[in-house]
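Input record (one chain):
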Amino acid sequence: MENKKKQRKYWLGRRPGQQGPRPTSGLQDVVEKLVTGSTPEDEIPGSNGASDVTGNSIQLRKQIRMGTWNVRSLIETGKLKLLSMELERNQVKLCGLSEIWWKGKGHFQTEDGHTVVYSGHDDTSRQGVALWMAKDIAGSLVSYDPVSPRILVVKLKAAPRDITVIQVYAPTAAAEEDEHEKFYDQLEAALSKTSK
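The corresponding structure, as predicted from the sequence alone:
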């Protein structure tokens, strides 16, 4: 036993692991099957069927997965479908999207029943933010405010109290000073309208 080297521990999320390459995901083969459509959604390992929604409100006392993703364009056909499949596979319920490159503002329901709220430029396809909501929590959408192509405010019904999600896509350091000032002024205004 003395011949065995002591391996240093590192933290992966909250669980301690061992140093070295990370193991491949147990869902890796399921992804390929889901892409071909041969595995139904209810066979995904780890999904226990428990809902995080009661009626039309999100239960905040239960665990819910949220995330953000800089998608760098959702213009191409089928890209939103792939994004939805990946978020379903990871059991994400809410995902803020940046750099979607869609024109206009609004919301719609995907073929799979998920809801997307978005805010972009009226005339050009660049920048843009969105919030993707899984179909089982889509009914909790109360209202949204497409402030600009860089800021989207979405209010969701939740228990014990409603929540507000602000999705932003900040300008880079290379952007003009005026663009930075405009962005932070709009963000400050959006935060001031949001209840504590």
